[in-house]
Design a protein that fits this description.
This protein is of the alpha/beta class and about 325 residues long. It has helices spanning about 15-25, 65-75, 85-90, 95-115, 150-165, 195-205, 225-235, 260-270, 285-290, 300-305, 310-325, and strands spanning about 5-10, 30-35, 55, 80, 120-125, 170-175, 180, 210, 220, 250, 255, 275-280. The chain folds into two domains: about 5-175 and about 225-250, Rossmann fold (3-Layer(aba) Sandwich); about 195-220 and about 255-295 and about 310-325, Alpha-Beta Complex (UDP-galactose 4-epimerase, domain 1), CATH 3.90.25.10. Helix 8 (about 260-270) crosses helix 11. The longest helix has 22 residues, at about 95-115. The two termini are about 35 Å apart. It comes from Sporothrix schenckii (strain ATCC 58251 / de Perez 2211183).
Length: about 325
Amino acid sequence: MAGQKRHYLITGAAGLVGPALAERLLEDPDNVVFLTDLVKPSVPAGAKHPENVRLLEADLCDTDAMKGVVAAALPLTAAFVFHGIMSGASEANPALAMKVNVDAVRSLLLHLAEVQRGVRVVFSSSNAVYGPPLPDVVTEATTPTPTGVYGSCKYMMEILVNDLTRRGEIDAFSVRFPTISVRPGKPAPAASAFLSGVIREPMNGLPCALPLTDRGFKATLCSPRVAIENLLRVVAWPSDKLPPHQRAVNFPGIIASVQELLDALAKVGGEDKLKLVRDEPNAAYEALLRSWAWSLDYSKPLALGLVRDKDAEGLVREYVATLKK
């Protein structure tokens, strides 16, 4: 029906992905977006219809607070579950990671199933679910064997998503993000944060420390723009896009080495920016980074209609363009 409002809930909405996704959703005057996080989120700066934003400050680890957020957003068109403790912080505090990344997510999913059976959910997972021993090329058929707290938590919730969807309790997909680069804002407490910082900090006149000295180290990256586009595509998928008990999909990324990022930085930002990059080895972070899967075959997600970036230089140019706005 024309003019009928569609309600979208985004948790962890004070981070990178939430505001950018909300901005895209708010291009449509019939979309109402509920943003929630531990700290009160802000209305996205570029929101076309800011009157359709609802800002909810809540600790989703608190059951009553979580239920209050869900009640405010009902009836839901979809929920995007983005809240969580990131990889580096998860290793530093496994108990907190379990509380936020498992207990709070589980509680939210079960409550959504209770109050709106069959609701569409998009759960943010990660390539960190993969770990050694890894095949030469990783696909969705590769069995996850995470070696970090963060990846383990994500995989546990993927299994719950599969089971709840199989039973018809929710209609969900788990999207495994590659490393998003270039992230705007401050460095995140993640082992992979330098993959944004190596561009972002020098372009803002700030130093960046690399946790490993290997310039040949390769990572799988995607831009914020491509991540948001793929989220919008997944949330609109019909339920039978994937089997009811296999709901995870790898978001496509490009493979780039640290040296390729540095070359792109020099080409786009100038050779002088390289002087701001220094080595600061972190053995724990390097071990975590090297345990993750960085060589993935994206035939399946691309065949399903998802998209990816072109190259490392494109990631840098996209970020630099945001600085000029």
